[in-house]
Design a protein that fits this description.
- The complex is a heterotrimer of chains A (211), B (557) and C (418).
- By secondary structure, chain A is α+β, with helices and mostly antiparallel strands.
- Chain A contains 8 helices and 5 strands.
- Chain A folds into 2 domains: 74 residues, Roll (Ubiquitin-like (UB roll)), CATH 3.10.20; 93 residues, no CATH class.
- Chain A is 32% helix and 11% strand.
- In chain A, a hairpin with a 2-residue loop joins β1 and β2.
- In chain A, α4 runs antiparallel to α5 and α5 packs across α7.
- The model of chain A has no long low-confidence stretch (mean pLDDT 94).
- With 557 residues, chain B is of the alpha/beta class.
- Chain B folds into 2 domains: 144 residues, Succinate dehydrogenase/fumarate reductase flavoprotein, catalytic domain (Flavocytochrome C3, Chain A, domain 1), CATH 3.90.700.10; 295 residues, FAD/NAD(P)-binding domain (3-Layer(bba) Sandwich), CATH 3.50.50.60.
- In chain B, 31% of the residues lie in helices and 17% in strands.
- Chain B is built from 18 helices and 20 strands.
- In chain B, α2 packs across α11, α5 packs parallel to α8 and α7 crosses α15.
- The N terminus of chain C is likely disordered.
- The chains are: A alpha+beta (211), B alpha/beta (557), C alpha/beta (418).
- At the A-B interface, α7 and α8 of A face α6, α7, α8 and α14 of B.
């Protein structure tokens, strides 16, 4: 059995158990800071983790971190950006003004102090600071790519001393890149076939027999 | 067949690995899947289904555990909501997954004031976990008709033709809608953003039709939707606010809901012109003892409440057991391995190293075949966990690099399991994945209860008795938009009528008349593992909270 | 105010308060200490040791040790930085000294430069401290042409650069290694120690960083001797200390008192007692990061050793007094918010951990928290210390943990259902 402490409660669980499952056995109500239970994709189970013999305290997603003996874990609530970086869908479509939009919606982005706190905080190991700097210098596509696998856990929001909300900036870059540039030819042709009436569905035509 | 009854007989891991030669012969063809399904699919498990005795779908079968909840008493009485805080909105959306966010966005874009309540956090849902992709007939060799027929046949011809036609016909416009909101789709290799979309083939389909973003399509979709809903000025979001009951007017129409605020430890009444139910599925009920790939919140809350209010159900006995949940280690059992792996060519082999089913058959057929292999002793045993093998090393040999570049999530899961998928096969076993049926809806998402709309997994009729890969994401976009638009446009007959628990009284009379127990309460809100006790949590509510601090607190939910 | 209480004014004596006017400063007793130091620069370090001068910015580290360590380095380009970043809540002593007596401070810094043979002396001043930077800049300008500065330069083996610079004005910018980062022109990121600045500081050169109040004291010690300085204190402590008294007292303000003066005397005699006659509850001491003092500690002599013996620290000498009726939880939540906002960002556990503490405290304060939330607070107090490069997170934890230790019932009474 592996013994650890989670939010002040002792837990004793078999090896291989994740922190989230260990929390459940420790009598911690799993009603918040929890979600996908292991896929590591909903970003809800942010935690600070200190391992035995390590001075460092690291951030992690509890549902994909296996327990270790002597581990100390504190769950972290979701920290919302200090202010919403608000924009609307109409802000997304014009690629020529994308950079202006980035600077207007995320004015804090140019104030990055290069502390790398966001990089250290990211449980997915993304190069968050690089993404912020790319967006702030106008490389929207480059920034978008950095945040490909971001799960929006908001740990970088909490970590950023300049309130840049890096993941939301990254998502804005992603949305700008997609909405502003993606125009698939096959989709456009199919939409035309449908609106022109050339392609329809005969709902009665289908029988159980495979064609 | 109940998995707990499956004999723990099988082929030891080491023997099975030794038998794996990668050059296995093609699997036997299945001409008629019905016998296989009847004997091995969990929907047909012996002694499992129970006939519903009360409600709009009395006489229909469904799994016993679900029937208990569908025929349960309400969590609250009038006395529980006496004097509790009340807020008003135009459209109430219950559920913060993909369908809920899209319904909220569509209603808000139509001008309605929207309140979205969600049990966990906005976006913490099954949508975000979807890996494979979204079906949309964009291929030159493809057509809406082909997609329509594949979907209907995949669902064993049980789907509602009008709903399936709506689903399929919305496809291309739905994908455009997503791109306009900033969702990225993979393009064919070497193609720029105005080239052709990359397409994968789903089990049970004739042509490649799955559009995706890597193997994190749901994540890409959900983070865009969450941001859009969160930033929309006419949408208010309440997290940590599970719905415990609906509110009815004197005509039986739905005019709001009661939520329980986990933040305030108290109930809050929400009056609304119309309600969109988007609470998702039921995987966390672990029907028939199966592991699940679902999110913690998937406990059939909305299904139970809508049924209690008079909505009809469709195919409530039909659930999808995704063929490839990871089977080992125990801590990860049930976590999903996307169909994308099989779509790209990975094969399934039993403990003798033999393929036993066409891996791209519909999911119900593949799952039943795996259960047959395990049930007849050809499964693979590892630390007491039974399963069959997904031959990822053979896939990697055939298409070097494919695991790392395209199956990121599979690699991530395998890594957590301590498996190198390029060198070792991954043990898999069916996992409870999706509720095929649900609340009966029309093409506008409307139910038989005036003012109550449904979208996403909670609704039924689209997928028949088996859903195809990629049709869940497609459904939640198309029907999320339909339900949101209809809910925004809905005008009640008597706009300022009462809003109370009148329908609950009717329901109790029916339960008593049918001789059903009144000590079972539903919805359950959280599965047992969450360790949540509503009564104990309510006891924490402070009576001295002023109305103002309550209002202030509601703002930060 | 009783007359004996005004007799010991050293730093705040009215005759020193001449502002940036160098001639006025030198026409009084100003400059005498520096001239004496120029005669026997080699004795300065042992003089400070004999006087028992300690860092008055909060740490209480013996000044002579820093000087001696830097003096022992062979590097000719040593630096003295006068740390005037003062940004702790409730502390307003350095701003007074810099604005009212900038030459007293500069003279002390130049003596420090003599002691370690520095070629550069930097006055590092918080730009948000009203009037301080302007006074210092003006004062520094007047020194540039003065023969005394040239004499110091000659004594240290080359010209001496004396300059005023604005600190970033952030709380974190007062931390010793953060000062080094800022003087180098960067963001005030704290660094891991060792190396200590006295060995490798600004630009890699040995650097002595002393607080404003510490340096202001130096010229007086040179002039009057170690025995005189030691005799200023009470209860065996040396010198005087500036106390920034604020909160629920009748007469808040800056008081220069003998080191070792009891806390009760500061509050009830000099401070005129509690506002509206309310009951005393607690003192948040010495900047924000120390253990609370409660009624049991009212008799504590305010010097480094005595306060430490009671489990707290004297710190900057700020005493924020709160009365019964003040919510300790809310007050502590405010402090933790201050830390969370001030955390520089380099160390995620510091930033995210302090936010989480603040969030939990706010929940307790608003009556929505449960026992599990309080457990989570205590667990963070266990987990977080030592997780940052500097002591910021440790300070935040100290405030929370000490308030929990002394006012647990108040926390528990705020719990939902409690």
């Amino acid at each position: 059995m592996v013994n650890l402490t989670i939010d002040g409660r002792p837990a004793s669980v078999p090896e291989g158990t994740t922190i989230v499952l260990a929390a459940a056995t420790a009598g911690i109500a799993l009603t918040t800071n929890v979600g996908c239970m292991g896929q590591g994709v909903c970003g809800a189970c942010r935690a600070l983790v200190r391992r035995t013999g390590e001075p460092e305290v690291r951030t992690a997603l509890a549902c994909e971190t296996p327990v270790e003996d002597g581990m100390q874990v504190s769950f972290l609530d979701r920290v919302a950006p200090r202010r919403p970086h608000a924009y609307s869908e109409t802000d997304l479509v014009d690629g020529w003004t994308a950079y202006e939009r980035v600077l207007a919606v995320f004015p804090e982005a140019v104030r990055c102090r290069h502390c790398s706190g966001c990089d250290r905080a990211c449980p997915k190991g993304l190069e968050v600071q690089k993404g912020v700097n790319l967006a702030a210098s106008g490389d929207i596509a480059g920034a978008a790519a950095v945040f490909d696998l971001c799960v929006m856990c908001n740990l970088c929001v909490a970590a950023c001393p300049e309130h840049i909300a890096p993941n939301h900036l990254g998502l804005f870059a992603r949305r700008l890149a997609a909405a502003g540039t993606q125009r698939p030819a096959d989709l456009i042709r199919r939409l035309h076939e449908i609106t022109s009436g050339a392609m329809t569905i005969d709902a009665d035509a289908c029988t159980d027999k495979q064609p | 067949m109940n998995p707990t009854e499956i004999p723990a007989a099988g082929i030891p891991w080491s023997e099975a690995i030794a038998a794996l030669d990668g050059g296995s012969a093609p699997p036997p063809a299945i001409t008629d899947a019905q016998p296989l399904l009847r004997h091995w699919h969990p929907d047909h498990s012996a002694g499992g289904p129970r006939r519903l005795a009360v409600g709009a779908s009395a006489g229909q079968d469904c799994p016993a555990a679900l029937a208990d909840l569908l025929q349960a008493d309400a969590l609250i009485d009038d006395i529980d909501i006496a004097g509790c805080a009340t807020v008003s909105t135009e459209v109430l959306v219950i559920g913060g997954g993909g369908a809920g966010c899209i319904a909220a966005l569509t209603a808000a874009e139509a001008g309605a004031k929207v309140l979205l309540t969600t049990k966990l956090g906005l976006g913490d849902s099954n949508t975000v976990m979807a890996e494979g992709g979204i079906q949309c007939a964009v291929g030159a060799e493809d057509s809406l008709q082909t997609h329509f027929e594949d979907t209907l046949r995949g669902g064993q011809m049980a789907g509602d033709r009008a709903l399936v036609a709506a689903l399929v016909g919305d496809g291309p416009a739905s994908v455009r809608w997503l791109i306009e909101r900033g969702m990225t789709f993979d393009m064919e290799e070497g193609q720029g953003p105005s080239g052709r979309l990359r397409r994968k083939r789903a089990g049970g389909t004739r042509v490649p039709r799955i559009l995706s973003f890597r193997d994190v399509t749901g994540l890409e979709m959900m983070r865009v939707l969450r941001e859009a809903a969160g930033l929309h000025p006419r949408i208010t979001v309440w997290n940590r606010s599970p719905v415990v009951e609906l509110l009815s007017d004197e005509t039986g129409g739905c005019v709001g809901a009661v939520i329980y605020s986990l933040h305030l430890h108290r109930f809050v009444l929400i009056r609304a012109r119309s309600v969109v139910m988007a609470t998702g599925g039921a995987g966390r009920l672990h029907l028939n003892g199966f592991p699940t790939s679902n999110h913690l919140g998937a406990t059939a809350d909305g299904l139970v409440l809508a049924y209690r209010m008079g909505a009809r159900l469709r195919e409530p006995d039909s659930f999808q057991y995704h063929p490839t949940g990871i089977a080992w280690p125990p801590a990860l059992r049930g976590q999903l391995i996307s169909e994308a792996a099989r779509s790209l060519g990975a094969t399934l082999v039993n403990g003798h190293g033999h393929r036993f089913v066409d891996e791209l058959s519909p999911r119900d057929v593949v799952a039943a075949a795996i259960l047959r292999e395990c049930g007849e002793g050809r499964g693979v045993l590892r630390d007491g966990c039974v399963g069959v093998l997904l031959d990822t090393p053979a896939l990697e040999r055939a298409r070097p690099g494919i695991l790392k570049t395209t199956l990121v999530t599979l690699c991530h899961l395998a890594h957590k399991a301590g498996i190198d998928p390029a060198r070792e096969p991954v043990p898999v076993y069916p996992t409870l994945h999706y509720q095929n049926g649900g609340i009966a809806i029309g093409t506008d998402g409307g139910t038989e209860v005036p003012g109550l709309y449904c979208a996403g997994e909670v609704s039924g009729g689209i997928h028949g008795r088996n859903r195809l890969m990629g049709n869940a994401l497609l459904e939640l976009v198309g029907f999320g938009r339909r339900a949101g638009a209809a809910a925004a446009a809905f005008q009640p007959v008597r706009p300022s009528g009462r809003a109370n628990l009148g329908h609950v009284q009717e329901w109790r009379r029916a339960l008593v008349a049918a001789g059903l127990p009144l000590d079972v309460k539903a919805p359950v809100l959280f599965p047992p593992i969450a360790g949540f006790d509503l009564a104990a949590d309510r006891a924490l509510g402070r009576s001295d909270l002023s109305a103002r601090s309550l209002e202030a607190a509601l703002q930060v939910l | 105010m009783a007359p004996e209480m005004t007799t010991n004014l050293v730093l705040t004596a009215p005759e020193h308060r001449v502002g940036a006017d160098l001639d006025a400063w030198l026409s009084g007793s100003g400059g005498l200490g520096l001239r004496l130091a120029l005669e026997t620069p080699s004795g300065l370090i042992s003089l400070m040791e004999a006087a028992g001068l300690r860092g008055l910015g909060g740490a209480g580290f013996p000044t002579f040790r820093k000087w001696a360590a830097a003096a022992a380095e062979p590097d000719p380009e040593k630096v003295v930085v006068c740390n005037g970043n003062e940004d702790e809540p409730g502390t307003f002593k350095d701003v007074f000294l810099l604005r009212e007596t900038p030459h007293q401070v500069i003279e002390g810094a130049l003596i420090a430069g003599l002691a370690i043979r520095a070629r550069r002396v930097v006055l590092y001043v918080n730009p948000h401290a009203r009037g301080a930077f302007d006074a210092v800049a003006k004062a520094v300008a007047q020194w540039q042409e003065h023969p005394l500065l040239a004499a110091v330069g000659a004594a240290v083996g080359g010209p001496l650069r004396l300059e005023a610079m604005r600190s970033p004005g952030l709380y974190i910018g007062g931390e010793e290694t953060a000062v080094v980062s800022a003087v180098e022109g960067g963001f005030p990121f704290p660094r891991r120690k060792p190396p200590f600045p006295a060995a490798s500081g600004v630009g890699g050169h040995p650097t002595v960083i002393n607080n404003v109040e510490t340096l202001a004291t130096v010229s007086h010690i040179v002039r009057h001797g170690a025995a005189w300085y030691r005799g200023l204190g009470r209860n065996g402590a040396a010198g005087t200390k500036l106390f920034s008294l604020s909160g629920d007292v009748q007469r808040p303000g800056l008081y220069e008192l003998p080191m070792g003066t009891p806390l009760s005397e500061l509050i009830f005699v000099h401070g005129g007692g509690m506002l509206l006659g309310k009951e005393f509850k607690a003192v948040f001491t010495g900047g924000p990061s120390n253990t609370l003092l409660t009624r049991d500690e009212l008799d504590v002599p305010m010097d480094f050793e005595s306060v430490r013996a009671r489990g707290s620290r004297l710190g900057t000498g700020a005493m924020i007094v709160v009365s019964e009726g003040t919510s300790i939880v809310r007050k502590v939540a405010e402090y933790v918010n201050f830390f969370a906002a001030g955390s520089c960002g380099q160390c995620p556990p510091c930033k995210t951990g302090s936010y989480q503490l603040a969030h939990l405290l706010q929940r307790i304060d608003t009556g929505l928290a449960t026992r599990a939330d309080l457990d989570a607070v205590e667990h963070l107090c266990d987990l977080l210390p030592g997780s940052g490069r500097c002591g910021l997170i440790d300070g935040a934890v100290t405030v929370v943990a000490s308030s929990l230790q002394r006012f647990r019932s108040e926390y528990e009474g705020q719990l939902a259902g409690g």
